[in-house]
Each structure stands twice: as C-alpha cells, then as structure tokens.
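QA checklist item 7 of 12: single-chain prediction sanity check.
[x] sequence parsed
[x] length recorded as 167
[x] structure emitted
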Amino acid sequence: MATDILIGIGANLPSPRWGTPRMICEAALEELRRQGIGVRARSRWFESAPVPLSDQPWFVNGVALLDTDLAPEPLLEKLHGIERLFGRERRERNEPRVLDLDLLAYGDLVRQGPEPPILPHPRLAERAFVLLPLRDLLPQWRHPADGRSLAELIAALPADQVARPLP
C-alpha cells in the first residue's frame, strides 16, 4: 500500500508567466510531474480568506496526494525549489505569495523537529483551507499525531475561517 504523502498548494498573487493564482496552482502540479513526482489525485480548488485575516487577496488552495520515493527532507527541498522557480521569496510569515507548497503529512510519520520538516504540518489542524480540500481526497484521514478524524478537526475550526469550493 502506498504511503499517503499530502501537500498543500496555494497562491494569492498573479504571475506574469503563469497567470492567475488558480493557473499557478495547476502549473505547480505539472511542475511536480515534470520533476518526477507523481500526483495521484488532487482536491477541488477552494478560495479562502487569508489567515490571519488581512486585506491581502484571497487564496486559491488545494491538497494533492503524491507518489514519490523521496524521503521527507529531499521532498521538502524539492517543494521549496519549485516555489523559487515560480518566483516565491520567503521574507515573512503569512505574506502574500505567488506559490506556497506545504508538506502536510507523510503517511503516519510524526516528527517534532528540531530539523524540518515537522510532520504532520504543525498548523494543518487549524486551517479550513487544508482540511476541507483534504476531505475531498481522503475523507477517512486521521491526524497521525493525535488520531482525530477529519470530521472532528473540521468541527473544531474557528468560525472566522472561510474556505469555499471554486466552480
């Protein structure tokens, strides 16, 4: 049975080369494939308010299920390399971005650091823009660290988080 390797994909800035945030997210999936990482499935695209709430543009977000033999560290490096290819510069947390690729979970692996990646992603359980798309892919998924179901995690989300499917 394949390990469920999950990544979050998001963008809220356009790119002169790749277009709208949604087009950027689609192009990022193609770039993963081009670099030898299989994309088994992806969720619908969602639009979501920035977290924390601010006046920056809304995001397009989704979750993808990957096939790769890469261990977590080289996979995270590859994700960061793709972000840089798309023009992402990491300056401050929660800033607008042309592309965000987060390693959300690597099977049932639980790692608390100190070296990245921390698995599962430390804020995965607090984000509607991750949990709602994840429900599209793996509705029976459970948080590897504490065993909570997706339904429990979604029910515990703050009421001010907005994420809705795009047509």
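[x] summary fact logged: The helical segments are 21-34, 72-85, 128-137, 150-155.
[ ] second reviewer sign-off
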